[in-house]
Amino acid sequence: MIGYIALCKKQGIVNRVIRSNPLGIINEGRDIRLLFEDCEQLGKLIRQPTGQGATLRLRMKTEGNPEVYVTVRALEELRLVLVYDAGDPSRTPQLVETVLSVMDIPEVLGQEPYGAGYYEIQRLNSQLINYQRTLAKTNVRLKALLEETREAKSTIEVLERDSVTGLYLEKVFYDRVLDVMLRNPEREFDMVAVDIEQFKIVNDAYGTETGDRLLMDLAGCLTGLSIGGEMLLTRARADTFFALVERKTADYPVVAMQVGAFLEGYPLPMRLQARIGVYQIDSRELAVARMCDRALLAANSIKGNYSERFARYSHVMHDKMILEQKIVNTMVESIERGDFQVYLQPKVEIDTGAVMGAEALVRWNHPEFGMISPGDFIPVFERNGFIYTLDLYVWRKACAMLRDWNNTGKGSIHISVNVSRTDLYHENLPEILSGMVREYGLNPEELHLEITESAYVKDSAQLLFVIQKLKQAGFIIEMDDFGSGYSSLNTLADLPIDVMKLDMKFLSQTENRERRHKVMQLVIDLAYNLRLQVIAEGVETEEQAVLLKEMGCHHAQGYYYGRPMPEQDFLSCI
Amino acid sequence: MSLLMMDQTPEFQNLTKEIYERQIEKDACLRDSLDGRARQKMYQDVRYNVDLLYTALQLEDEGIFEKYARWLYQLLCPLMNYFTRERIRDLMVDHYELIRSCMVQTVSEDKRPKLHRLLDCAIHATAVECEQDGKYQPAEGRYEPEIRRYLDTMLQADTLGAMALVNDYIRDKIPVGDVCVDIIAEAMRRVGELWHGHQISVDMEHYCTSITQMALSQLYPLIFGQERNGKSVLVACIGSELHEMGARMVADLFEYNGWDSIYLGAAVPVEALKAAVAANQPDLVALSVTMPQHLPLCREAVKQLREENFQTRIAVGGNAFAETDIWKGWCIDIYTKDARELVKWAEDRI
After folding, report:
1. How close B247 gets to chain A, by Cα (Å)?
2. pLDDT tens track for A357-390
């Protein structure tokens, strides 16, 4: 008996074997037509929608080539194919039972049982949800991260800022400057330093809060300056600001004017001024801090100079700084070695031309640098305090000269020495000087003491006290440089001076010549009324000498009468 | 059910084969009427029964097999409604007795007394279940209207409606934990009941799972958007589980409470689990098991995690643990029935 039942596709591919007796006649996935010799005929039958079923008698290719019935019935898109032959008629019932068993199978047409694919879909579904979950989680995290980054950025911004002015901190400024220059290799930049004159006084007089307020407002002013292009600003320390500006966009006179106007209009009852220094960045290899130093050096070059508000850095400034350093490095060994020499400049009676005295002036003949001008080293010594040591040295030299002269019968000539402002702060100065003249066997009036007028302006009470003591000790007090700075009536009224030294520069200025003459005349008259001797300094021409004589000034000093000279030369002119 | 199968030992593989062959042999009608596919299906059913028996033996827990016997009986009653309940009971008893006789030939003697006891329990439970005819009626909680509405929407295959409902519940200020556990999880449990009761097809059951997963995924921005607390939980399903919704819900509720969750999903091999724990160093590992056959694997996973000395707490949960206390002998820190309870415990202890 042959009994085979299967579901096939219209092309003849076996979709599912339902019964197979004997087993394995043809398996799923193969073409049922291949079972038969006349496969074309079966193919035609299968393609037809045989609703009621149609039957063929075909010979099989299997062993013995048995003839079988093939019944095909369409089941929607599929075909139910029955291949059967009872052989022995007694087996017909068994064949019919096999056919009928098809009816017991609910799934012949119904749903397919779930194969692995169905569960795979479930698994994929879960997988997709998990991906979605991961994406959603990552998305939320990214948002939070973005927010954190924003916050961190603003925190960094705050940390990078000076709490008083809101400007970049110095270090951050350095980084930013490098960054800007790196990004703009073709553009040219300047480093600008802005410093407030006497800012310390604001803090001292009005409190730190007011000082901070001023710094904050100045920062606002600088930020708002009409400089085109990119500008970086920092407050490096105290009242020092640095700015990086693009050279072509910066108009410094205008900037100086704007800053000046801001400070002048600032509501504080004191005169506020800024000094501005500009360094043209000519070498980008230079560390930013050095660029700032140079800008500040330029600014400091006009320190205390109230008419100049803006200066450019030059290599001269740099050289000067280097020179100053050399001065500081070698001053001690120089004084020990005797490199400092005391020169004398004659003071004369204008009428007779007779030498009445001399001013002792120091010269530094440096073995390495040659002659160094007092204009270079005196301010340095005044700043670092070495001036007292040098002054003591000069005073001793002057005393020694006076003693020698007395011993050799040239006793009628006095020497005046300079007393620096800082010397006056030494409380035992009168004792020191008195001791010195005593040591050299001199009378105090032989040694005149020249004190600069500006010394008195700055700290009058202390200086008045010291000067009075010197005066009581018998020294002759000369007021140096009268009329060159801020001359004060107070100085004249209060200071117990004996001599007034008038600077001829006052007359040599060309504008308001007439008025200057009148003022000069008046000062000379005033001095006589106060019983002060008047000596004109810096007399260089005969005209000046004549003029002075007309004005009633009887004593003078200057190149016209003699340059500062070594002691031997001086002695030979008298 | 092929994906849900566990690996059998040769001993129990033989037992399965023996039962299957004898069943065919015994019943000439079956022998003739079953085609290849139906036979395969029958073999799988037998295998499923043996798996559960083996699981109960391994875990030495009679409750598991007893519970399964009741479940199977209730599953078959509506499925074979052309038989009386008593006839089905007798069929099942015959089946358990067949297992009993087959195991004499296939299973080593030392295991047999325990297997006898398990089969006795199953027979007894089946008889009790037949007499009681009691179907589980869920207690009606405070969210009964919400549960019914969600269930109805799903059963009407209203995808958009079901998704909208979850949003509505959140908008109505129902706590996220309650929406997940009291409404969605309960509705899904009832879907399982409906399938068990032969009232819906497995297709519908799977549709409900898919739509619920989608509906819950709408809550992700809310769930992940909570402030982080720096703690982390690793969640995984043990064995070849398709039922990962419960585990994912646990992970989601932890996220909602500020925990960072590492969700490994289903079918995580123990080695992969260990590697993930080593890599992430979580404060808590939560393992979920739905089908009881995977309980031994879960026990093994816990054992191996402990052997590695990970500095982590371990929690287990899932339907497989319901009505059992087998976890008590395991080296775990906590078992909870309710995901919210686990989160609360973790918040207090970790």
Report:
1. 11
2. 999 999 998 888 888 888 888 888 888 889 999 9
pLDDT-derived band at A419 (thresholds 50, 70, 90) equals very high
Catalytic residues of A: 537
Peptide bond into A93 cis (omega under 30): no
Residue recorded with tokens 């003029």: A547
How far, in Å, CA of A568 to CA of A394, rounded?
16
**A·B CB contacts under 8 A:** 66
Cα A535 from Cα A523, distance rounded (Å): 12
Number of helical (H) and strand (E) elements in chain B, helices listed first: 16, 5
Could you give the dihedral angle defined by the CA atoms of residues A287, A288, A290 and A293, in that order, rounded to the nearest 10 degrees?
Answer: 180
pLDDT in tens, B5-45: 566 788 888 899 899 888 888 876 666 666 666 777 788 88
- Residues sharing a CB contact under 8 Å with residue B113, sequence separation 6 or more, in sequence order: none
- Using a CB-CB distance cutoff of 8 angstroms, which residues of chain A are in contact with residue B242? 119, 122-123, 126
pLDDT greater than 50 at residue A108: no
Contacts of B203 (CB under 8 A, 6+ apart): none
- Asked if A444 contacts A434 with a C-beta cutoff of 8 angstroms, the reply is yes
Share of chain A above pLDDT 90, in %: 35
Q: What is the reported pTM?
A: 0.53
For A446-459, give one letter per residue: b (16+ CB within 10 A) or e: bbbbbbbbbbbbee
Q: Which amino acid is at A504?
A: M
Strand order in the sheet with A78-85: A14-21, A2-8, A78-85, A67-75, A54-59
Q: Of the candidates B182, B30, B179, which has an alpha carbon nearest to the alpha carbon of residue B98? A: B30
Cα–Cα distances in angstroms (integers) from residue A319 to residues A322, A323, A418, in the given order:
5, 6, 28
Establish whether this prediction's ipTM goes over 0.95.
Answer: no
B95-116 residue pLDDT tens: 999 999 999 888 889 999 999 9
Q: Is A370 left (phi over 0), alpha (psi -120 to 50) or beta?
A: left
Whether the CA torsion A378, A380, A383, A388 is positive or negative: it is negative
Contact call for residues B35 and A105 (beta carbons, < 8 A): yes
B37/A contact by beta carbon, under 8 A = yes
